[in-house]
C-alpha cells in the first residue's frame, strides 16, 4: 500500500473493524536446527568472542570456563563458539536460489548479559522431507566505518563486530542490496550491506517525537518512564514489514507505549512508516489492537499489497495440560502457553481512531496433524492428530505459496524449554496449510 492510500484511509470515518474469524491450520512440514548448534567466529574477531555467554550468571559476574554455569535445561553456559540460535524474523525477500533470510537476535536476552553474543543474519534452506534446516551462510554484522553513534562492546580495532550489548535485532527486510533491521534497544532502524557492514542507524520518530527505551544509549540511571522514555524495555521493534512495492517499511513495536503516568497507553501497538529511499520516517502510522490475552507480537510480514500476517503471543511456554497445580514446582509448566496466534490484518481498512482491521486468525496451540508430520515429542497430553507450538517467543512468519505459511520460534538458548520440560528448545520451523487464512 502506498503512503497516499494509507493517509486516505486514516482520514475516513470508517465503519467498525471487520469481525475476526478463527480458521483452521494443518501441519504440512516440520524442520529444525538442534539447540546445541554453534558457529566458529570469523577469523578477525577478538579472541574473547570464541567463548560466549560469559556474563549470564544471575549476579552478572564473569564466568570464563565453558559449561561452568549450570542451567535447568542441561545445556550449560558459557559456550565454546557462537550459538546459532534466536531466529527472530524472516525477510519477505529470498535470495536468488530461494533461500530464506533469517535474523538472529541479541543473544542471551538482555543488554547486560549479551556483550559477547555476535549479531548477524542467516541464509537458510529448510528441507521438510528430511526435517533439517541447512545453514547456507552466516553473515556477521560489523561497523568498520564507525557509523554507530555510540561506543560498541568491541569498539577498538578495525573489525568492530556488533554484539547483543549494542543492539537487540528483531525484524529484517531486504530492499535491493540493502538489509534493513529493526532494533529494540534504541529503538533504531539499521541499514547494512548484504555482507553485514552497517551503513546507517536511524532513531525512531512518532511525529516529531523521538521514541526511546530504557536501553537507549543516551539515557542514564534515574530516567523516568513516560517522560524520558516511552518504549518499555524489550518493547522496541519486533516486526519489520516491507510493502510488496518495496517503497515502505512498516515497523511494529512489540509492546504498548508508556503514557506520561507511567502506564501503558492502551492494549495496542504502534506501527510506523519509514521510506527506505529517503531514509526517513514518513509520519504515517496506525494502531494494532492486541487480541485478548496477548502481551506482545513476534513478527509482521505482508502477503499482498495491503494484507499482512502478525504473530501475537502471551508470555507462557509449555503445553497447558501440564500446568502446575498450586504449590507444585517439578514436572510441570509454571506458566504454560495459552495465546499463540497468527493474525491477518488489512492495512487498507483503518478506522477513525487509527486501528487496523483484524480479519482472520489461526491458533498455534491447536494445529491439525492428521499425517503425523511432527518430528518432536511434546511433554503433556496433546491429543492424537493434533500439534502445538508452545514456545514463549514465536518470532517468524512468512507466506510460502498460495496456501501455506512458515512459522518459526526464537529458542532463547539455553533458557527456554517449551517443547520438553528438561530440554532446551531447538529452532523449529513449521509449514502450515492455511488456505482459509490467506483467502482473498
Give the count of helical stretches.
2
- Rg on CA atoms, Å: 21 Å
- Briefly note the structural class of the backbone: mainly beta
- What percent of the residues sit in helical stretches (DSSP H or I)? under 10%
CATH architecture: 6 Propeller
Q: How far do the termini sit from each other?
A: 16 Å
Structure summary, number of beta strands = 28
Q: How large a portion of the residues is in β-strands, by DSSP E?
A: 35-45%
CATH level-1 class: Mainly Beta
The count of domains is 1
Overall pLDDT level? 94
Shape: globular
Q: Which stretches are low in confidence, meaning pLDDT under 50 for 5 or more residues running?
A: 1-18
Report the order of strands and helices. HEEEEEEEEEEEEEEEEEEEEEEEEEEEEH
Structure description:
The chain is mainly β. It has a single domain, classed as Neuraminidase. The chain is 3% helix and 36% strand. The protein is built from two helices and 28 strands. The strands form eight sheets. It has a five-stranded mixed β-sheet with strand order 1-23-22-21-20. A five-stranded antiparallel β-sheet has the order 11-12-13-14-15, with no helix packed on it. Strand 13 and strand 14 form a beta hairpin. The longest helix is centred in the first third of the chain and has 9 residues. The N terminus is likely disordered.
Amino acid at each position: 500500500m502506498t503512503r497516499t492510500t494509507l493517509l486516505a484511509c486514516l482520514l475516513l470515518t470508517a465503519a467498525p473493524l471487520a469481525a475476526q474469524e478463527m480458521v483452521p491450520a494443518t501441519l504440512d512440514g516440520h524442520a529444525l536446527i538442534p539447540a546445541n548448534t554453534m558457529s566458529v567466529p570469523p577469523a578477525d574477531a577478538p579472541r574473547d568472542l570464541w567463548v560466549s555467554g560469559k556474563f549470564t550468571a544471575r549476579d552478572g559476574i564473569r564466568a570464563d570456563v565453558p559449561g561452568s554455569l549450570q542451567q535447568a535445561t542441561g545445556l550449560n553456559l558459557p559456550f565454546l563458539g557462537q550459538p546459532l540460535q534466536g531466529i527472530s524474523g524472516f525477510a519477505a525477500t529470498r535470495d536468488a536460489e530461494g533461500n530464506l533470510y533469517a535474523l538472529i537476535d541479541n543473544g542471551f536476552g538482555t543488554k547486560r548479559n549479551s556483550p559477547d553474543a555476535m549479531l548477524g543474519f542467516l541464509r537458510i534452506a529448510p528441507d521438510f522431507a528430511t526435517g533439517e534446516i541447512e545453514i547456507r551462510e552466516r553473515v556477521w554484522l560489523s561497523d568498520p566505518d564507525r557509523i554507530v553513534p555510540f561506543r560498541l562492546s568491541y569498539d577498538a580495532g578495525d573489525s568492530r563486530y556488533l554484539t547483543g550489548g549494542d543492539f537487540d535485532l528483531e525484524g529484517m527486510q531486504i530492499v535491493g542490496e540493502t538489509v534493513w533491521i529493526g532494533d529494540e534497544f534504541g529503538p533504531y532502524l539499521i541499514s547494512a550491506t548484504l555482507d553485514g557492514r552497517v551503513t546507517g542507524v536511524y532513531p525512531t520518530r512518532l511525529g516529531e517525537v523521538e521514541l526511546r527505551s530504557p536501553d537507549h544509549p543516551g539515557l542514564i540511571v534515574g530516567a523516568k518512564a513516560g517522560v524520558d522514555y516511552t518504549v518499555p524495555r524489550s518493547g522496541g521493534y519486533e516486526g519489520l514489514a516491507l510493502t510488496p512495492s518495496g517503497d515502505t517499511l512498516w515497523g511494529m513495536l512489540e509492546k504498548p507505549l508508556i503514557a506520561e503516568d507511567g502506564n501503558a497507553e492502551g492494549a495496542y501497538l504502534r506501527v510506523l512508516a519509514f521510506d527506505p529511499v529517503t531514509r526517513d520516517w514518513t509520519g504515517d502510522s496506525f494502531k494494532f489492537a492486541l487480541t485478548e490475552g496477548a502481551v506482545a507480537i513476534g513478527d509482521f510480514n505482508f502477503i499482498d499489497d495491503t494484507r499482512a500476517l502478525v504473530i501475537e503471543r502471551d508470555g507462557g511456554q509449555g503445553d497447558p495440560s501440564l500446568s502446575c497445580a498450586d504449590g507444585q514446582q517439578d514436572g510441570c509448566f509454571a506458566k504454560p502457553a495459552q495465546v499463540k496466534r497468527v493474525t491477518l490484518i488489512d492495512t487498507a481498512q483503518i478506522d477513525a481512531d487509527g486501528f487496523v482491521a483484524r480479519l482472520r486468525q489461526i491458533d498455534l496451540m491447536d494445529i491439525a496433524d492428521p499425517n503425523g508430520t511432527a518430528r518432536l515429542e511434546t511433554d503433556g497430553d496433546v491429543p492424537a492428530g493434533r500439534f502445538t507450538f508452545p514456545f514463549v517467543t514465536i518470532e517468524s512468519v512468512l507466506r510460502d505459496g498460495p496456501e501455506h505459511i512458515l512459522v518459526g520460534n526464537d529458542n532463547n538458548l539455553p533458557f527456554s524449554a517449551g517443547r520438553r520440560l528438561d530440554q532446551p528448545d531447538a529452532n523449529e520451523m513449521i509449514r502450515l496449510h492455511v488456505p482459509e487464512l490467506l483467502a482473498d
